[in-house]
Amino acid sequence: MPYVHLYTDQTPDHESLGALRRDILADLAQHLSKPPARCMIHIDAGQNIFLGNSAECAFVEVRVRGPLDAAKSEAFVTAIKRDVAHGLNLMTTRVYLHLMEIRDSGILGAVY
Q1: C-alpha triplet 36, 58, 98: angle, nearest 5°
Q2: Residue-wise pLDDT tens for the chain (112 aa)?
Q3: Directed axis angle between helix 70-88 and helix 14-32, to 10°?
Q4: How many CA atoms lie within 13 A of 106 on its CB side?
Q5: Helix (H, G, I), strand (E, B) or coil at 108
Q6: CA R_g for the chain
Q7: DSSP code of 13?
Q8: Which of 41, 30, 29 is nearest to 4 (CA)?
């Protein structure tokens, strides 16, 4: 199950957050072949986060299970940065991303 955690100082309205969530789910489905029902998204808007001395930025932390193909990783990172920037009305250079591949994960006591 991919987990996406988005931190931003921006405060988008409810409709914009819904559109952004749908865009992130579409990126996960297209580039990582993950159905929306198997993805978790956590959006922290209105946070005290700065890039240098300036606000207007976002940090995206993505955790995915298993190794990713380099080409798929690059396409996914490009797409999610583009969609987050668009959804929050930021330049893509103001969106930072950390993609973490995890080997094992557990649900209800079972390790996968």
Answers
A1: 65
A2: 899 999 999 999 999 999 999 999 999 999 988 899 999 999 999 999 988 888 899 999 999 987 888 898 999 999 999 999 999 999 999 999 999 988 766 665 555 4
A3: 170
A4: 4
A5: coil
A6: 14
A7: -
A8: 41
Amino acid, res. 72: K
Task: Give the integer Cα–Cα distance in Å for 10 and 59.
Answer: 11
54: β partners: 51
> b/e map of 52-74 (b: 16 or more CB within 10 Å)?
eeeeebbbbebbbbeebeeeebe
pTM for this model (two decimals)? 0.87
pLDDT at position 107 is 61
DSSP state letters, 67-79: ---HHHHHHHHHH
How far apart (Å, rounded) are the C-alpha atoms in residues 3 and 62?
Answer: 6
Report how far residue 33's alpha carbon sits from residue 6's, in angstroms, rounded to the nearest whole number: 20
* Tokens linked to 23: 């865009």
